[in-house]
């Protein structure tokens, strides 16, 4: 099979060259961040580390970690390393409670982002002749606009269809001749099912490949998507704090995702001790962004559990590969591609005047679409003898939950003490999805 | 003048009503009237009992969400037009009905209507002026 690269010199560079590039960029980044981000400078000073101590990737472990809470504490722009007039784009994702995690990009950051997305598209067989159908949400979520700019950079014809109205999406695929689909894997499955319901045969579509990410999925789902849509399905990984989609991407071998190592340094650590783990061991994935200007996070703890390997890949790329994340070190859920923390629901209930709310999130997948039901125990303050007052409470909770989480949820009021109490850490989630 | 009604939150799942009635039985509470308002996921059981305070305490102890609400009870003639007469009075006085339920007396001449109104005080005054029989707590608890 012929291999295609967007940036062949870098994607197939000898490992020692990549390492020396990383070392150079790391020391430059640390210097810049130390000079421009007070929070980071204080952390380094506390640890007695100076930028001069960071000369190569081997010095990485001397640096402090960054966690999501740090972004929240410095909400919205406190971690930015450049003045706001250099920021050309802002995205955001859910934080662990009410506040979002806000990320910024300079023009150069956007250009780098385009480049890494173009690499992913080309690795999936894309080129300028393709019609790239982007069914990720557009907006503050990085999925839609991230893929969009990358596909444009590859000079493809971009169809920014966004989410929803599935029948119309299929009509567009038929009429415009979409060749590459970008969406969450669960939406791809849903599209496939809808195709069947509409009586459209997959051979009527021009689709050849799909790039799917923003939520966990299995090899089983990959096979189903490939069958339903008659395509090859590729995985893509990313998180807004580090860049957005494209931090790593799958090649034709489909045995893991190549990390764009000229822009990001990956580590695996023991989530308990914070110690670096050797290649091949499973642990928490940590990224350092070494070319980002606006938000160059140092040793950002993703909370995703994965493994790194640098075996020779048949695609010719020398970038290290990561496995699909196989879990989380926190209680974050990904529902319809959106990050959801149970604590967000708690903060909503507290803001509505509930003291010590008892609640449970029930996540399921019905017809390939994720569903979220939030059970809330009826409290004395919420109870009324009139149905409409109780339904009004339900509506208020639902509206507040939806605006905080950014996804629709069903709210169900249940009897007091009917949600199981646990000793120690409360169990807040029942995830019935088989992923 | 006002009567205490017990309201209980009941999830729509098997066995809830039987549990509530068993608890009431254990505390020797006699039910005078009941109604249930149901939605897809839950219902509100409304009860008039002979000892509302004890019933509230017992159900709370058993973990139910319970409240006591003031309602009014009127006596009407148990014959065609009896209810219409009372409701017309409310309509003419522009008093909205939140909910209501009725039961007949053992003696067979009177029916009783439990009313939860937008404005209970105003309704009581209005019923009095129009000579409608208003039941006292003692009347209804001992019916």
Automatic annotation (TrEMBL), chain A:
PANTHER family according to UniProt: PHENYLACETATE-COENZYME A LIGASE
Reactions the enzyme catalyzes: 2-phenylacetate + ATP + CoA = phenylacetyl-CoA + AMP + diphosphate
Record domain AMP-dependent ligase C-terminal: where: 337-433
Description of how the protein assembles with itself and partners: Monomer.
Coiled coil ranges: none
E.C. numbers: 6.2.1.30
The species this protein was found in: Acetanaerobacterium elongatum
Pfam families: AMP-binding, AMP-binding_C_2
MF (Gene Ontology): nucleotide binding; phenylacetate-CoA ligase activity
Name this protein carries in UniProt: Phenylacetate-coenzyme A ligase
Annotated keywords: Ligase, Nucleotide-binding
Assigned protein family: Belongs to the phenylacetyl-CoA ligase family.
Cited function: Catalyzes the activation of phenylacetic acid (PA) to phenylacetyl-CoA (PA-CoA).
TrEMBL record, chain B:
UniProt cross-references to Pfam families, sorted A to Z: ACT_8
Top-level taxon of origin: Bacteria
Stretches assigned to the ACT domain: 5-85
Protein name: Uncharacterized conserved protein, contains tandem ACT domains
Species name: Acetanaerobacterium elongatum
Matching SUPFAM superfamilies: ACT-like
């Amino acid at each position: 099979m012929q291999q295609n690269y967007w940036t062949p010199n870098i994607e197939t560079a000898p490992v020692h060259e990549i390492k020396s590039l990383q070392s150079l960029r790391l020391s430059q980044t640390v210097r810049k961040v130390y000079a421009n981000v007070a929070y980071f400078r204080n952390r380094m000073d506390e640890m007695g580390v100076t930028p001069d101590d960071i000369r190569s990737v081997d010095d990485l472990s001397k640096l402090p970690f960054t966690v999501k809470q740090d972004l929240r504490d410095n909400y919205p722009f406190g971690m930015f390393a450049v003045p706001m007039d250099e920021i050309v784009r802002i995205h955001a994702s859910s934080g662990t409670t009410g506040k979002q995690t806000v990320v910024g990009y300079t023009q150069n950051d956007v250009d780098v982002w385009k480049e890494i997305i173009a690499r992913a598209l080309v690795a999936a067989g894309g080129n300028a002749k393709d019609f790239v159908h982007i069914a990720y949400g557009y907006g503050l979520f990085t999925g839609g606009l991230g893929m969009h700019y990358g596909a444009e950079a590859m000079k493809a014809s971009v169809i920014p269809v966004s989410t929803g109205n599935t029948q119309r999406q299929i009509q567009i695929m038929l009429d415009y001749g979409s060749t590459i689909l970008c969406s969450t894997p669960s939406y791809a499955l849903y599209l496939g099912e809808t195709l069947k319901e509409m009586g459209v045969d997959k051979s009527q579509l021009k689709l050849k490949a799909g790039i799917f990410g923003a939520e966990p999925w299995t090899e089983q789902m990959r096979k189903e998507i490939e069958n339903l849509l008659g395509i090859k399905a590729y995985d893509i990984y990313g998180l807004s704090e580090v860049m957005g989609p494209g931090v790593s991407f799958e090649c034709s071998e489909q045995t893991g995702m190549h990390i764009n190592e000229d822009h990001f340094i990956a580590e695996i650590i023991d989530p308990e001790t914070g110690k670096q783990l050797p290649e091949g061991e499973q642990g928490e994935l940590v990224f350092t962004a070494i070319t980002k200007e606006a938000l160059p996070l140092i040793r950002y703890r993703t909370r995703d559990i994965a493994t790194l390997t640098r075996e020779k890949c048949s695609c010719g790329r020398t970038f290290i590969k990561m496995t699909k994340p196989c879990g989380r070190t926190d209680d974050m859920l990904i529902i319809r591609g959106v990050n959801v923390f149970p604590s967000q629901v708690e903060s909503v209930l507290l803001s509505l005047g509930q003291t010590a709310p008892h609640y449970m999130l029930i996540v399921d997948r019905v017809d390939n679409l994720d569903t979220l039901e939030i059970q809330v125990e009826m409290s004395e303050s919420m109870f009324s003898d009139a149905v409409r007052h109780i339904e009004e409470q339900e509506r208020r909770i639902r509206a507040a939950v939806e605006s905080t989480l950014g996804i629709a949820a069903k709210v169900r009021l249940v009897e007091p003490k009917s949600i199981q109490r646990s000793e120690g850490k409360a169990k807040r989630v029942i995830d019935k999805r088989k992923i | 003048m006002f009567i205490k009604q017990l309201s209980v939150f009941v999830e729509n799942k098997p066995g809830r009503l039987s549990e509530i009635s068993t608890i009431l039985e254990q505390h020797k509470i006699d039910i005078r009237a009941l109604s249930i308002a149901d939605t897809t996921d839950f219902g509100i059981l409304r009860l008039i009992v002979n000892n509302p305070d004890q019933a509230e305490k017992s159900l709370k102890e058993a973990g139910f969400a319970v409240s006591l609400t003031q309602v009014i009870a009127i006596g009407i003639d148990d014959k065609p037009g009896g209810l219409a007469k009372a409701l017309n009075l409310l309509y003419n006085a522009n008093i909205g009905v939140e909910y209501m339920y009725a039961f007949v007396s053992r003696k067979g001449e009177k029916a009783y209507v439990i009313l939860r109104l937008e404005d209970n005080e105003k309704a009581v005054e209005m019923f009095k002026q129009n000579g409608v029989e208003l039941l006292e707590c003692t009347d209804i608890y001992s019916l």
